[in-house]
Amino acid sequence: MPELPEVESARSVIERSALGRRIVDVDDSDTYECRPHAPGEIRAALLGRRLTAAHRRGKSIWCETSGVGRSRTPGPALGVHLGMSGRVLVTQRDQTDEGGDYVGTGRSGQSAQSRHNPTWDRFTLTFADGDTLRLFDKRRLGRVRLDPDIDALGPDAGEITPAEFRDRVGRGTAPLKARLLDQATLAGVGNLLADEVLWQAHLDPRRPAGELDADELAGLRRELRKAIRHAIRHGGVHTGEIIDYRTRGAHCPRCGTAMTRATVGGRTTWWCPKEQR
DNA sequence: ACACGTGTTATGCG
DNA sequence: TCGCATAACACGTG
To answer: Which pTM does this prediction carry?
Structure first.
């Protein structure tokens, strides 16, 4: 579920409610979520430190950490990736969770029991005042790691300049949608956001990316920024206009043409075959 | 019961 | 080595 907008709200929760307090316990026993670290490795690296800042590029979050005790030497960065189903929850002593409840699964929302089921807590930091920061992740494709390689990612999709966008996205023979999904090209676009933006920009997801002209690339970037802002404001990529029409029997809400479904760039893709060229 | 999947990454091929 | 396609990963959901 999480794409750039949802990840930004998770980052914001950490910044607002998890910085500055001493870490007194770390549960890093989920070896899959914490790959490639051995159990206890992250724990040993973080005990006694504090989170001092929360950053994001695309779908990746990383937190700076303080020195231990009075040491000025900062600790390793704590990288958090939500994968397909991860949520960051900061639980206060009064048991209320902050974060993780972004609107926009659009469907059922989460039940009270799934919200508190510890089975899906894959990583937990406990602070000196008793609060906890947890990575709650049913599908277990999220990831926590020390010093993640952020430079392997392209520029953030919400901040990329027009020139960078033209040079990085508008090249190659891969389908346009595959280019948008490539996190090394541009960080933060997932499957749903890609379909939304391509529909808004009237572009065929199968077009070789290098064939787009300057106007088309400028329009695509404009729609991308618009869609990201809209999703952050309204609670996630599920609030996009075309998302509900990514289903069998649906018709384009602008022109009424039956929506087409195919695999493009390795992912299920829906588009309007009449308007998207 | 079974196919599907909103993310990343390893592998293989030309 | 590069660009691209595909499979694999884990496991809940419809």
So the answer is: 0.91
